[in-house]
Amino acid sequence: MCGIIGYVGHRTALPILIEGLRRLEYRGYDSAGVALASPNDVTVTKSAGRISALEQIIDVESTQTTGLGHTRWATHGAPNDVNAHPHADSSGRIAVIHNGIIENDRALRTYLEQHGVTFTSDTDSEVLAQLIAQLYDGNLEKAVRQALHEVSGTYGIAVVCADEPGVIIAARQGSPLIIGVGKDEHLLASDAAAILAHTSQVVYLGDGEMARITPNELRITTLEAVPVAKEVEEIEWSLEQIELAGYDHFMLKEIFEQPAALENCLRGRIDLREGTVHLGGLVDCARELVRAKRIILTGCGTAWHAALVGEYLFEELARIPTETEYGSEFRYRNPIVNEGTVVIAVSQSGETTDTIAAFNEAKQRGALTLGVVNVVGSSLARGTDAGVYLHVGPEIGVASTKAFTGQVAVLALIACFLGRRKHMSPTAAMQFITALSQIPTQVARVLERADDARKVAEKYQQRENWLYLGRGYNYPVALEGALKLKEISYIHSEGLPAAEMKHGPIALITEGMPVVVIATAGSQYEKIINNISEVRTRGGSVIAIATEGDREIAKMVDHVLYVPDTLEPLQPLLTAIPLQLIAYHAAVIRGCNVDKPRNLAKSVTVE
Length: 607
Ligand code: G6P
Known about the structure:
Elements: E1 3-8, H1 13-24, E2 31-37, E3 42-48, H2 51-57, E4 66-72, E5 87-88, E6 94-99, H3 105-114, H4 124-135, H5 140-149, E7 155-161, E8 164-173, E9 178-182, E10 185-189, E11 201-204, E12 209-213, E13 218-222, E14 233-234, H6 250-256, H7 258-266, E15 270-271, E16 276-277, H8 286-290, E17 294-299, H9 301-318, E18 322-326, H10 327-332, E19 341-347, H11 353-364, E20 368-373, H12 379-383, E21 386-389, H13 402-421, H14 426-448, H15 450-460, E22 465-470, H16 474-489, E23 492-497, E24 514-518, H17 525-537, E25 541-547, H18 552-556, E26 559-563, H19 572-589
Parallel strand pairs: 17-18, 17-19, 19-20, 20-21, 22-23, 22-24, 24-25, 25-26
Antiparallel strand pairs: 1-4, 1-10, 2-3, 2-4, 5-6, 6-7, 7-8, 8-12, 9-10, 9-11, 11-14, 12-13, 15-16
Helix pairs in contact: 3-4, 4-5, 7-13, 7-14, 9-13, 9-16, 13-14, 14-19, 15-19, 16-19
Bound molecules: 6-O-phosphono-alpha-D-glucopyranose.
Residues 299-303, 347-349, 352, 355, 398, 400, 600, 602-604 line the site of 6-O-phosphono-alpha-D-glucopyranose (G6P).
């Protein structure tokens, strides 16, 4: 989604802005632009397409030391040069970049047109620039504050003005902004990745807060001009973590990072001597949590799939009735939140609008709200009552991989944490966490056979329709495998509970159609073998994900990708890996842009 970078300091702003924009590319965008402020004017350069297109038209000699950069993911108005940000007012002295959506832009636009303003773009964001200019009387901060009082919607904005060239005014309502603190300089960004090369010292702007940023001063106030004291915090991610480190794509790097990422995620949380799970983030609410009468897990996309695994885990290990809801559905359907309802939001970024809205709805209705989030300091992480971080490191590839396994691992830890305080015996808990502690090494073993998955992708990459089938804990993995394939290789794929196939989708099976079946050892093994025969009888080609040592299955299917044996509830942590690899290789072979798939964004900050 849209990305923001800003710089005010003693260095030339342009290279810092361009580098920041490049680091924001992964979020997904369709146009980009920069604004550089000097006492004479504000120079805006913008272009549809990639940042390289912007670089071709920009004046590389620019020496201004204050500027803004933006990557846009179109919502209002087509992705073209004119609608790209920054947006300047008609005089060209004020420029604005904006993430989010201004909901009353029509009314404001009409009002401004009646006062003689001529708009050049179709965007809601230009309304902000024009409105601020109308209100400007020599004090940019005041004008922005007044303008924001007229606005409803969500925003992370940054504004510069030719009359105040060493100043950036920023404000946030529902769209993240962090301010990087350097020596005689400040940076501003919607995402830590954009500024990490310069500083790891940051201040998180909260909703309803504004910042006046100069090279040497950072002043934060509420929209009502009440000063807010803020602490400078340290970002725990390093620059190396957000770079490719020799891999062709971030997605591949992140797939291969999973053993280390899971190791990190589990570190200090599993106590093999005591047979317990330690989750510092839940200690304060443990009693309330254990008494939960019902748990609702909410998320979007891959996080929703991880949440579905969590539903199975919570019901089996903790015996608490649990359901999984899409954030977008939960928020609008007048959900029932009784006493004893706990809502757990699952999100890599912690910024997904629908998930945040669901969790806000739950909070308003009095639920205890928890977060299972990767990005420290994100909106969700800051807004929940308690939570558990994934600690899997930054995920840059749009297709989520290590965040999925991290989410499942954390949900498994929470399930055991609760189970142990309820019905789970010490022996069962010990068995569970021992198996969990072996997962990172087992994932590494799956990755050693990555080439088998590549061969499958190579063989079937031209087929435009795939099915993914799974049962029990592997049903959400089937959904996730199908999502991975469609989102990066643009192959149509569907994930199903295996038994549902005969209620309709079986009609799709034709000669040679690839059907990925997760057929690992477990309580439903015989059933899934029957499903495999149903596919084979109709000419489908079966790619089975099976447990090491299962030689029999090789006789029944076209290809087998083996994973080590583990407890059934933990199988998703292993079975997801070959499916990630199939999707990755299919996309590469088909020439798709793996890390920046068409129309997609890493973090979806609109409804
Ligand atoms: C987008 C991403 C997905 C992700 C989903 C939820 O659609 O492309 O990969 O699963 O958002 O994101 P979150 O950050 O909340 O986990």
